Amino acid sequence: MSPASKVPVRVDGRELVLSNLDKVLYPESGFTKAEVIDYYSRIAPVLLPHLEGRPLTVKRFPNGVEGMSFFEKNAPEHTPGWVRRARLPAPGSTKDRDTIDFALIDDLPGLVYYANLAALELHVPQWRVDGEGRALPPDTLVFDLDPGPPATIVECCEVALMLREVLSADGLEARPKTSGSKGMQLYAAWDGREEPSAYAKRLAQALAKRHPERIVSVMAKKQRPGKVFIDWSQNNPAKTTVAPYSLRARTRPTVSTPLLWKEVERCESPEDLVFTSSDVLARMEKHGDLFSRA
């Protein structure tokens, strides 16, 4: 790496060195690492509240979305000391670790640090840690709606409206977002009334029984064609879901985008709910954080 490819910057009082800013990470659109960092810096006001206190898993693409990628849970050895970490148990670790040192991205410098690592996708669990780094009970319920071709996000929207009604009857307010890929997710603040996976599974099974021609609640892929799989298992504490406002590693820099319910109700084509980084920045200017609980 040539010295010219390294750029020292100061972000909110923290010293960082950015590198290879002209590297193209999304070849189809020519979207560079500099643009990735710019997007995450500008979206930070609405993104950071959804990362705060949540152990971070990233998916890194050092050579862009068409190159090799890998998930990373353990904070890299070169992570600055000012990045908060939480050492948590790692049952079933593929690398035989007893614990993992997760990064907790609570501020703009930490976000820029990871963007510079080409960590395009940010994934977090449905729970947070306390000030001492200890895991707290889940505070969020999530349903991941995955369409089995030829079904698309249009069919996911129909299922989302069904779920909204069921959740509302239980006193839970659902918030929709796209996955940034082919499906969508529904979130709700969780009050701990029971184990969230058990609750989500029961709702998914009930809707699948009521609409067997449209919905499936089991993971067997042979049952999914033309239907929407309600993945309730994302509520397992060991699992993560792509964060609101995270980029996705598609051909274009699409984003997991919070939605208005009227957009869900009016969706007629998959392209209706495809939003790129520039679209989402404009939406933030217009709507603020659509995923806020306020």
Structure described in brief:
The chain has helices at residues 33-51, 108-116, 153-169, 196-210, 261-266, 277-287; strands at 6-11, 14-19, 24-26, 31-32, 57-60, 70-72, 84-89, 99-104, 119-124, 140-147, 175-178, 184-189, 215-216, 228-231, 241-242. With 294 residues, it is an alpha+beta fold. The chain folds into two domains: 3-124, DNA primase, PRIM domain; 140-236 and 257-287, Alpha-Beta Plaits (2-Layer Sandwich), CATH 3.30.70.
Describe the structure.
The structure is a single chain. With 294 residues, the protein is α+β, with helices and mostly antiparallel strands. The protein has 2 domains: 3-124, DNA primase, PRIM domain, CATH 3.90.920; 140-236 and 257-287, Alpha-Beta Plaits (2-Layer Sandwich). It contains 6 helices and 15 strands. It has helices spanning 33-51, 108-116, 153-169, 196-210, 261-266, 277-287, and strands spanning 6-11, 14-19, 24-26, 31-32, 57-60, 70-72, 84-89, 99-104, 119-124, 140-147, 175-178, 184-189, 215-216, 228-231, 241-242. Strands 11-12-10-14-13 form a 5-stranded mixed β-sheet, covered by helices on one side. A hairpin with a 5-residue loop joins β11 (175-178) and β12. α1 packs across α2. The longest helix is centred in the N-terminal third of the chain and has 19 residues, at 33-51. The protein is globular. 40% of the residues are buried.
